[in-house]
């Protein structure tokens, strides 16, 4: 979840897209010049045709005339605006919690428009407390102090013999910092219910009655919350990479994880690709698993130093494990590099593996500036603030935390990383927590489309089926691939169903499983033109070929830029 910012299965925006600092140089300063309004006053920003607006919402929706928040919004306008084919906005949330919708559309608006279809505006936003929206969640008065505390804030629990105790001790610091920095009780308003209510106001500001929405990972929690609060205000709802919302709000992060299954897909796909395509190849998937175990034990005792043009550091046990874990989110984008990085590491060269999720070393002008910290779209603070505020109070002792970690490890070898999501909130300040946390049910005005992969590392397909049961008429579309959310793999079938749902409202039949267009380890080849039903007739092949090819190219572009990573 890399520079690790985000959270278990909750999407963090790719470093391949503009970072906040880059955005400042590319037009990000426009945010300081925009008027915050209850109307959507779109202004050209960044590069054409992107437009930005600052949207005013109540800080506390229970007190609409009280203090307000300013939500940074961005859109890639529909090329069909003003025509009969125009259908209005589709809101998107990239997950997190704490990920930046501004960053999402700045880097991928054109591609997302191509995937959803030209009939719609692609609209996203930085949720309250995040990125360019204000007030902003911050646990530290300066970036220097944030970096001094270290990112990630929490160590891998198996990296040291006192790992669980260290993780809980650092949680005590985070809790104390939250108390210190939140004297005005802002944090209690940075919750998912309020963001869902913000979205309803965005819909109404567009002159619409009902929401069109595509949410990834944590964005499915946000979407399910909206559907429960406002079931009669749903026009289209695509919830992709589905989080068990009950589990999320209960602060468990634990049910039916497929993380080990996703790692197995690395060994299987490498073996299928063969030694020419996969440098980590061995005589069987089992042999590769043993080879990785041996490499992990070696690195735990003998870390490998790396110096690049951007930074320097060690490939040690924690770095190796977090890199492998992060790669499970986007196998098509990361597994080929992971295979090369692991093969090099066996020979003592850690550069490729280190660079997979490398971030520049922190630097600052320490001349005594007292201004506010420069915001970052995926700043870790917002992740803590939102998920700890949303969730049930956690007051685990060290002994209780150790039991919890053992329970996770009984489900998956990656429990050492996943445990952080709960334990990090163990000393969060006491809050009234009056916000919505279920039940997740609703007879929505249009059925919801849920999407899950057969081997998602953090949001298993079982969660999609569980959540769908609360909303009559819902359908779960399965994508036969590893990775987090449907965009982790190339499936023309899935995209066609999404497009058809947004344009016509049609849902796939129950039990549909969409194939992918190619193996993970595969040479350059003619693009596969398999359609939504898995069969292509002679009659429509010529008409559909160019469109299918364009979808595959768009998915590849999105996959390379929109990385699905953890937040540890």
Sequence-ordered SSE layout with sheet pairings:
Elements: H1 20-28, H2 30-33, E1 36-37, E2 43-44, E3 51-58, E4 68-76, E5 88-93, H3 101-116, E6 120-125, H4 143-149, H5 163-181, H6 192-205, E7 211-216, H7 218-229, E8 234-240, H8 245-249, H9 259-273, H10 285-301, E9 304-307, E10 312-315, H11 317-327, H12 331-346, H13 351-355, H14 380-390, H15 398-411, H16 415-418, H17 420-423, E11 449-455, H18 461-468, E12 475-482, H19 492-504, E13 513-514, H20 538-561
Parallel strand pairs: 1-3, 5-6, 5-7, 7-8, 8-11, 11-12, 12-13
Antiparallel strand pairs: 2-3, 3-4, 4-6, 9-10
Structural class: alpha/beta
Mean pLDDT: 86
Number of strands: 13
Largest sheet: 11 strands, mixed
Percentage of helical residues? Answer: 40-55%
Q: Bin the strand percentage.
A: 5-15%
Number of DSSP helices?
20
């Amino acid at each position: 979840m890399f520079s690790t910012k985000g959270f278990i299965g909750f999407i963090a925006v790719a470093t391949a897209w503009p970072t906040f600092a880059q955005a400042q140089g590319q037009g990000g300063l426009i945010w300081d010049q925009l008027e915050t309004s209850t109307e959507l006053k779109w202004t050209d920003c960044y590069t054409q045709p992107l437009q930005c607006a600052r949207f005013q919402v109540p800080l506390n929706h229970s007190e609409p005339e009280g203090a307000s928040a300013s939500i940074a919004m961005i859109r890639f306008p529909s090329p069909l605006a003003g025509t009969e084919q125009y259908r209005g906005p589709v809101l998107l949330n990239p997950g997190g919690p704490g990920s930046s919708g501004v960053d999402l559309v700045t880097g991928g608006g054109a591609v997302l428009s191509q995937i959803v279809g030209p009939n719609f505006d692609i609209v996203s936003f930085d949720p309250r407390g995040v990125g360019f929206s204000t007030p902003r969640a911050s646990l530290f008065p300066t970036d220097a102090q944030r970096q001094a505390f270290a990112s990630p804030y929490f160590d891998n629990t198996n990296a040291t013999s006192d790992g669980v105790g260290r993780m809980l001790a650092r949680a005590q610091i985070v809790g104390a910092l939250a108390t210190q920095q939140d004297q005005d009780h802002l944090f209690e308003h940075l919750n998912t219910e309020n963001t869902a209510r913000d979205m309803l106001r965005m819909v109404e500001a567009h002159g619409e009655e009902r929401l069109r929405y595509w949410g990834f990972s944590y964005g499915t929690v946000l979407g399910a919350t909206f559907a429960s609060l406002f079931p009669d205000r749903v026009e289209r709802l695509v919830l992709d990479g589905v989080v068990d919302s009950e589990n999320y709000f209960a602060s468990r992060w634990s049910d039916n994880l497929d993380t080990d299954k996703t790692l197995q897909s690395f060994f299987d796909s490498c073996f299928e690709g063969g030694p020419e395509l996969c440098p980590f190849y061995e005589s069987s998937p089992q042999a590769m698993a043993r080879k990785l175990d041996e490499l992990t034990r070696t690195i735990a005792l003998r870390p490998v130093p790396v110096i690049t043009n951007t930074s320097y550091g060690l490939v040690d046990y924690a770095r190796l494990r977090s890199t492998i874990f992060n790669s499970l989110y986007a196998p098509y984008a990361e597994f080929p590099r992971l295979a090369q990085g692991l093969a090099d590491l066996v020979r003592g060269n850690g550069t490729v593996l280190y660079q997979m999720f490398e971030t520049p070393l922190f630097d600052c002008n320490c001349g005594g500036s007292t201004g506010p910290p420069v915001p970052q779209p995926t700043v870790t603070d917002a992740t803590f603030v939102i998920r700890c505020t949303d969730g049930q109070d956690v007051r685990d002792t060290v002994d209780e935390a150790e039991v919890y970690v053992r329970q996770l490890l009984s489900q998956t070898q990656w429990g050492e990383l996943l445990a952080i999501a709960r334990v990090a909130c163990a000393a969060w300040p006491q809050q009234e927590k009056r916000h919505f946390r279920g039940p997740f049910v609703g007879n929505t005005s249009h059925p919801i489309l849920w999407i899950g992969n057969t081997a998602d590392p953090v949001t298993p397909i079982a969660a999609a089926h569980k959540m769908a049961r609360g909303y009559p008429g819902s359908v779960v579309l399965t994508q036969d691939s590893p990775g987090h959310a449907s965009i982790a793999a190339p499936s023309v079938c899935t995209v066609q169903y999404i497009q058809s749902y947004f344009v016509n409202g049609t849902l796939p039949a129950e039990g549909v499983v969409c194939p992918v267009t190619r193996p993970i380890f595969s040479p350059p080849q003619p693009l596969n033109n398999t359609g939504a039903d898995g069969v292509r007739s002679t009659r429509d092949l010529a008409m559909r070929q160019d469109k299918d090819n364009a979808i595959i190219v768009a998915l590849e572009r999105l996959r390379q830029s929109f990385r699905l990573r953890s937040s540890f």
